[in-house]
Amino acid sequence: MSLQFSDLTAELTEQVRAAAAARRPLAVRGGGTKSCLGRDTRAEIRSEPLDIGSHAGILNYQPEELVITARAGTTLEAIDAGLAERGQQLPFEPPRFGPGATLGGTIACGLSGPARPYAGAARDLVLGARVLTGRGEVLRFGGEVMKNVAGYDVSRLMAGAYGTLGVLLDLSLKVLPVPAVTRTRVQVCGESEAIERMGRWAARPLPITATCWDGERLWVRLAGAEQGVQAAAAVIGGEPVEEVSAVALWGDKIREQGHAFFDGNLPLWRLSVPPATPPLGLPGKQLIEWGGAQRWLKTEAPPERIRAAAAAAGGHATLFRGGDRTGEVFQPLPEAQMALHRNLKAAFDPQGILNPGRLYRGL
If residue 48 lies in a helix (H) or strand (E), which one and from where to where? Predict the structure, then answer.
């Protein structure tokens, strides 16, 4: 794999320091494919763009060590292409939501795809990071192997922080080999039955790497050695799905939300609940992933009702896309937890210039 270099650390550091001195808010931007996520603060905060899209390049790739290090502006397309040359992949299947999707934006938003419950979340696979804080300091956390990750892992803290704690400069991630065989099965069933079946399969050592109930059918992806996949398919049952159709399903339709379920203008909610949670009884249409743990909901129901149902089940709800994005889009936190968030924000970004309000109002 050829290494590409475009190091903008000095320029980005100078811009952050100048903004901190002037207390001028910055909007961190990579490829712009995740700009619709999080709170919309444009009406309340006038921010200057901090473009990291050109801070790109694969710095180190060690296939034998299953680790890759790249600058945050490196596109997922470039990373996927490089890994594919050696038969490897990013195991958490990050959504792109556009051709310019970058590694930094993906990790900053904490996004994971269909394989998340089985291969780990984006946060789980971050080994190390180089971060530019709101103080204009460049800090390095973690390393390029698991044994270097000791104590409180700040690099993983950056996953899902939406750039509010620091600007991701470089990231080291664990990668895995592409499975030898991948097969998808489908069966017709209702919501309750789909949740029950996914829970039953999860209790067995089956090589499941993705599940999805689309409102009518339950889709299951198996991957691994040929013999193990065949044996698991016999246990699960259902009908086999042609490989071309299966690749499109898990990629374009589910990971990239090109499925017909995601069409239309209704607010799209992402509910995270314990996998075995029974149907929540909320109005609207649902698409269920991750063995029952991730439930997409399209509805006009009041946010208070949706969040109350998720909280009663031991989970939380996020207004993922659409709806009123000037309010809180993430589940409101108890005051004690919000105080921890404020303290972390003050430690990394004391002037509050990095993506202010993107995660929570006032943060």
Answer: strand 48-51
